[in-house]
Write a structure and sequence with these properties.
This protein is mainly alpha-helical and 60 residues long. The chain is built from three helices and no strands.
Length: 60
Amino acid sequence: QVGYFKYTRKKFGEGRRLLKMAPLHHHFEKTGWKETQVVVRFWIITMLLCLVGLSTLKLR
């Protein structure tokens, strides 16, 4: 985020940010998502990534 801000400040004259607020869940809350919606979607993503990780394990 800091590098992108410095780059856009040099290129456009004013800094732009990728996220509205530093922790990712706060960014989504600032864009209008409810806290419960953010939490449930993160749970779903976590479960899917856990399944991908477990499926790539080589069990003997």
